[in-house]
Amino acid sequence: MYRTHTCGALNMSHVGQPVQLAGWIQRIRELGGMTFIDLRDRYGITQLVINEDTPADVKTIAETLGREFVLSVHGTVVERSNKNPKLPTGDIEIALSAIQILNASEIPPFTLEEPSDGGEELRARYRYLDLRRGPLQRAMALRHSMTQETRNYLSQCGFLEIETPFLIKSTPEGARDFVVPSRMSPGQFYALPQSPQTFKQLLMVGGFDKYFQIVRCFRDEDLRADRQPEFTQIDCEMSFVDQEAVLLQFEGLACHLFKTVLQKDIPTPFPRMTYKTAMETYGSDKPDIRFDMPLHEITHLAGGTEFALLSTAEYVGGICVKGAATYTRKQLDQLTDWIKQPTVGAQLLVYARCSTGEDGALMYKSSVDKFFNQEALHAWGRVMGAEDGDLLLVTSGPREATQHVLGTLRLEMGDRLGLRKEGVFAPLWVYDFPLLEWDEETERFYAKHHPFTAPKPEDVDALFSNDRNRLAQVHANAYDFVINGTEVGGGSIRIHNARVQEQMFHVLGLSKEEIDSKFSFIIEAFRYGAPPHGGIAFGLDRWCALFSGHESIRDCIAFPKNNSGRDIMLDAPSGIDPAQKKELGL
Ligand code: ASP
Fold first, then answer.
1. CA 430 to ligand 1 centroid distance, Å
2. What is the whole-number distance in angstroms between the Cα of residue 454 and the centre of ligand 1?
3. 467-485, pLDDT tens digit by residue?
4. CATH number, position 27
C-alpha cells in the first residue's frame, strides 16, 4: 500500500519501471526550474525529481513540502544525467507521477545529516529524530548482529539462554544498588541487579552447565567516564571448566563476532599477558597492544646525582618513542604541561633526543645534561632500545602511580603518532589478577573482581591465614578480555565451597550476621553439591561501540541516559505524586 521498494533498493536495472517509495524528506533542492527531493528510509536515500513533465497536481503538493515530511510517492525510475557515485542509488532518480503526504513534520530542531549541527543535549531531547540519522541507524543494526550472532554461536555450543530476576535483594559489595520500594511489604525494598552473578552461579548448582543471557544490569555509580546506569552484558557461566576452557570458549565467541559482524579474521590464540606484566610493561591492566612502546624501568641508572626527583624516587621509568626526536622544544614543553596536569599527575618529564653525531656514533641531547653525561644517557638508551631519531621520555615517583602515568603517556604518544589505528583490532587476555585489593582509606580489603572469585588452589591456605601481607599476595584465576585498550569483558573461576566462600566474606570484613542475612542463600546452595564453575561477562554496549568505531557507548544504545543519569527526553528521574508515595509506604 505504501511502497514497492525501499529507498536503498533501486539502481540502473530498474530503469523504466513504475515504483512506489515511502520515507522521510531529507532535503529539497530547487535547481533551474527543477525540484530534487532526497527521500530517506532505513535502507538509503533515493532522489525524486520534479520537472516540466511532472503532473500539475504533484507540483502543487511539492510546494507545500518540508524537511522530515513523510511521503509515499509513485513514479518511474529514470537514469540520472548527473550521477552520484557515493550513493548506491546514485545512478537513478524517480520521475514523480503522484505524491501522498502521509504526515507533515515541524521543522526539525537540528539537521538529520551526518554529521548533525545539533548539540548533544538537543539531540538527546529529540532522540527519536537523532535515531533517523545514518550513524545511529548503522549502530543499531550492528548491535542487532552482535546479539543475534552471540545467540547463534552460544546456542550452537550448547548454551541455554535463561532469564534471571530484576527485582532482587540489595547486597553490599560492588557498586551502589538501585532500589525499588515494595508496595506489598511496606518499608521494604527490592534492589535491581548489578549483574546476575549469584543467579548464574545458582543455575550451575541447578545443573545447567552452560548458561548465557543478554541482560540489563543496573549500577548506581557516579557516571564519570563513559558509563550508563543501566547497561547490557553478555553474561555467561559454565560448569566443570578451568580457566583454559573458559578462555578458549569465549575466544571462539569473539572470533565468531569478528568474522560475522566485521568480516575480520583474527588470528588465534589471542595474546595473553599476566596482570603483573601488563602493569610493568604497559602501565595498565588493559593495554592497547596495537602498538608496542613498552615501559622500561631505569631506577638503577638514575641515582647518584643531585637531581632529587630522579635520585630519590622509588621508581624511574620511561618510554622510547620511535622517530620522535624531531619533537620541538615547544612540543616538549606542551607535553610537560600535559603530564603535570592533575588528571595525569606526574611531577616532571625528562626527555632525551637520540641522534647520530658527526663521528657516526649515537649521541643524546637531554633536558638533564647538567646531571647525566653521555655515558649515563647511553645506559638509559640501551635499556630502552633507543636508535637514531628516537625520543626518550622519562618520569619518576611511587612505583605503581608512575607506571600508570607512563601508561597514560604511552597512549597519548600512540595517539599523537597515529599508532592507534582505526579498523585494526588487537584482542588480549589479561589474567592472574590479585584476588584482593587493600584500601588505605577504609583499611580493609576489597575483592578485585568480586567476592565470588576463587583464589588459585595453591593460595587457598593464604586466604585462611588472616595475615594481611599473605592475603595481598593471593592470586585468582580471574581474567579480563581487552580490545585496543578497552576492557570488553571480565570473569573468573568461582568459589564453589561454602567454607571458602564464608572465609572470603570474612576477609572482606563482613560480620557473621551480615554474611547470614545477605548471602546465606548462596553459601547454603554450595552445601548441596555445587559443581566447580566459572564464567565471564562482556559489556555489550562497549563492544558495539568498539566495533562500530563510536567514541561513546551512548551511540550504541537506542535510548541512553546523559552523564548525570537523566533521560532528557522523558525528563526522568522525576517526582511521584503523594498518593503514589503513600501507597509505597514512603
Ligand atoms: N558478574 C561479573 C561482572 O559483572 C562478571 C563475571 O564475573 O562473570 O563483572
1. 15
2. 13
3. 999 999 999 999 999 999 9
4. 2.40.50.140
